[in-house]
Specification:
two-stranded antiparallel ribbon; 2 strands; NT_sf; 49 residues; globular; Nucleotidyltransferase; 37% helix; single chain; Polymerase_NTP_transf_dom; 2 helices; alpha+beta
Length: 49
């Protein structure tokens, strides 16, 4: 599966390690940070499969 990714490489590697450690097939990001409408204090919405 190909995904659009704008994360810095070190963050990408860290997330890949977390996914592997916990047997996750996918990590999904959604909400204002994905749409570009976040503010300085916005949270990061994450879903896992």
């Amino acid at each position: 599966m190909t995904a659009k990714n704008s994360l810095p490489e070190f963050e990408q590697r860290s997330l890949e390690q977390v996914a592997e450690k916990h047997g996750l097939a996918m990590i999904l990001f959604f909400g204002s940070r994905v749409t570009g409408k976040h503010r300085f204090n916005s949270d990061l919405d994450v879903g896992v499969i």
